[in-house]
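About this split. The held-out portion is used to measure sequence recovery: a designer receives only the structure tokens and must propose an amino acid at every position. Recovery is the fraction of positions where the proposal matches the reference. Here is one held-out target exactly as it appears in the evaluation file.
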């Protein structure tokens, strides 16, 4: 990998939520033992049902994740941006891949195989604790999404999803969510028309700005209050 690309990977992993509380050596070891894979728009990083273990760390780009429930329908369940993790370590969780991940734009993935994880652990044993924390947080997010769908009204549900999937950065006043209205509707179980109506109302109130395939969050505190049913 080129030096500047390696520096990008190090920066992304150092700021990733699941690694930021661990030794600075851990991201460096992951980069040293992993393999970088470049993918084009529309290419799959993984498919639901794959039995290949290990982790895929998103370094650059954007991926959409999909799950196929009973029947033939495939539903979008999330976004994977830089710092996100796909796959799982079989030491902590067995079974095939749970979701299909498709590149929404050209992306770079750092693949950490099961053998590579063992080599990382030889230098940084805390990797297993980091993965355990990651697994717990993923379960919490899945439960949160399920609870939103069951308990929130569409207006609140839309606000809650935008807040949840926005990449929070205290240095930025405006947060961008790269998602179309159609995919947002699919993710939360409402029609595109419903999403459009509520996004238009949010935009009129100065809370967001809607663009092509994106939503800019201008007033995050107010959106959080809406998601909680307070306003």
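Reference sequence for scoring:
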């Amino acid at each position: 990998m080129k030096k500047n690309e390696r520096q990008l990977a190090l920066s992304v992993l150092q700021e990733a939520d699941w690694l930021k509380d661990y030794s600075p050596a851990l991201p460096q070891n992951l980069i040293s033992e992993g393999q970088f894979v470049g993918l084009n728009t529309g290419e799959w990083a993984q498919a639901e049902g794959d039995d290949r273990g290990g982790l895929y760390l998103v370094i650059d780009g954007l991926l959409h994740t999909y799950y196929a429930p009973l029947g033939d329908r495939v539903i979008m369940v999330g976004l994977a941006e830089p710092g996100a993790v796909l796959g799982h370590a079989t030491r902590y969780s067995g079974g095939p891949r749970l979701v299909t991940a498709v590149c929404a734009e050209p992306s770079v993935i750092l693949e950490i195989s099961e053998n590579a994880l063992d080599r990382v652990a030889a230098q940084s044993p805390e990797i297993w604790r980091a993965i355990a924390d990651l697994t717990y947080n993923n379960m919490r997010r899945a439960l949160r999404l399920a609870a939103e769908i069951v308990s929130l009204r569409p207006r609140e549900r839309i606000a809650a999803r935008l807040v949840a999937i926005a990449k929070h950065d205290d240095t930025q006043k405006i947060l961008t969510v790269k998602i179309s209205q159609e995919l947002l509707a699919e993710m939360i179980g409402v029609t595109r028309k419903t999403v459009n109506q509520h996004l238009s109302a949010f935009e009129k109130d100065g809370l967001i700005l809607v663009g092509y395939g994106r939503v800019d969050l201008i007033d995050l505190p107010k959106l959080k209050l809406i998601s909680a049913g307070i306003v």
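Annotator remark: The domain at 3-148 is CATH 2.60.120.10 (Jelly Rolls).
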